[in-house]
Specification:
This protein is an alpha+beta fold and 265 residues long. 20% of the residues lie in helices and 24% in strands. The chain is built from 5 helices and 9 strands; from the N terminus they run ββααααβββββββα. Strands 5, 6, 7, 8 and 9 form a 5-stranded antiparallel beta sheet that branches. A two-stranded antiparallel ribbon has the order 1-2. Strands 3-4 form a two-stranded antiparallel sheet. It is globular, with a radius of gyration of 25 Å.
Length: 265
């Protein structure tokens, strides 16, 4: 504008028992192998790292992903993280990405945003053309947007894919709100759950964001406790289903990570 498993195999050798004084045929040698149960994740895990790959360009926006479906998925994830990633908590990055997105038409075009999309974002967060929060319709230098999506606690699925265009849906928790610039806590932030449905197209040797689809909040699955950001892999499978192609990113996590900032934390 982003958090494994091992199977331990134990092998036990069977013992050969010979009965010398018996007319009963000697039992054939046997081997008994004991294995610990393998842990199988409820959703498959890919090799795609949410927030990884590419070549760092402007701020958190990365370019240079390969012309593959995986490359397109990474690009789509990165567009989302650039818009509303954990780096937003860093004031320098926040000011830079706000100016980059809102003040530069060329940058907006590169990120695949139409003016209509920008206008919608301005209305949602009550900000002006430069991304500055407004109080009573006037820029308020004491306030700023706090926003971060955490893909490692969600999942993604490829909706459509061709050589030059890929549509990927991402389901993830995010924290958001508008608060003071110098807030030392995130107690005024809120937790939400959303689908980010993005289309990226191969243009001039790079993946560019070319489409965004919005979903009403009541259409988005939420965990039993919607204020809980961290979900288990099993809960994600229950919410999203195991037959629709939902996949965990390579860096999926079920535990707290250093970058996670929760309301009141």
């Amino acid at each position: 504008m982003a958090v494994l498993l091992a199977a331990v195999v134990g092998v036990g050798a069977g013992a050969l028992i010979m009965r010398a004084a018996s007319t009963t045929p000697t039992a054939a040698p046997s081997t008994a192998v004991s294995r610990a149960p393998e842990v199988v994740e409820a959703l498959p895990r890919s090799t795609i790292v949410a927030g990884g790959g590419g070549v760092s360009n402007v701020y958190e926006l990365r370019t240079g992903y390969p012309k593959t479906t995986d490359g397109a998925v990474q690009a789509a994830m990165n567009f989302l993280i650039t818009d509303v990633g954990p780096a937003y908590y860093n004031q320098t990055h926040y000011e830079a990405i706000q100016g980059y997105m809102f003040a530069s038409p060329e940058a907006r075009a590169k990120m695949g945003y139409s003016q209509a999309t920008i206008d919608s974002m301005r209305q949602t967060y009550q900000i002006n053309d430069q991304g500055q929060p407004l109080t009573d319709g006037k820029p308020d230098p004491t306030r700023r947007i706090w926003d971060a999506v955490y893909l490692q606690y969600g999942a993604y699925r490829i909706v459509e894919a061709s050589t030059d265009e890929v549509r990927v849906m991402m389901w993830a928790p995010y924290v958001y709100g508008t608060d003071a610039n110098n807030a030392t806590t995130t107690s005024n932030l809120h937790i939400g759950w959303a689908y980010a449905d993005k289309t990226v197209s191969w243009v001039d040797g790079d993946w560019r964001q070319s489409g965004n689809k919005a979903y009403p909040a009541d259409q988005v699955p939420k965990p039993a406790d919607p204020n809980q950001v961290i979900t288990s892999f099993a809960e994600r499978a229950d919410l999203l289903g195991t037959d629709k192609g939902w996949t965990l990113p390579a860096n999926a996590a079920e535990v707290d990570t250093p970058e996670l900032q929760l309301p009141g934390k």
